Amino acid sequence: ALHVEGEHFADCSTAESVARLNPFRDCLIELRDPQTAAVGIGNCQTWVQGSWPELGLPDG
Questions:
Q1: pTM to 2 decimals?
Q2: Residue-wise pLDDT tens digits, 33-47
Q3: Which of 1, 23, 43, 46 is deepest in the core (most CB within 10 A)?
Q4: Is the dihedral of CA 53, 50, 25, 39 positive or negative?
């Protein structure tokens, strides 16, 4: 049996959902291929890896 913990928002457009989800924002980016002139839209996912003690992130 699959067991998943977390939250589920059936409708992310309600005022209650927006208030709860507001800190999570997508970073939309536009991409252009200079060789083919193709243009696309993407979602830039932020990834932090390693320790940054100056930011309070301990060794993992």
A1: 0.36
A2: 999 999 998 888 777
A3: 43
A4: positive
Total number of domains in the chain: 1
> Which residue range forms the structural domain that includes residue 51?
1-60
In the prediction, which pLDDT does 58 show? 72
3-state SS, one letter per residue, for 3-50: CCCCCCCCCCCCHHHHHHHCCCCCEEEEEECCCCCCEEEEEECCCCCC
Among candidate residues 29, 33, 30, the one with its CA nearest the CA of residue 44: 29
The residue whose two tokens read 């003690």 is: 53
Q: How far apart are CA 8 and CA 5, in angstroms?
A: 10
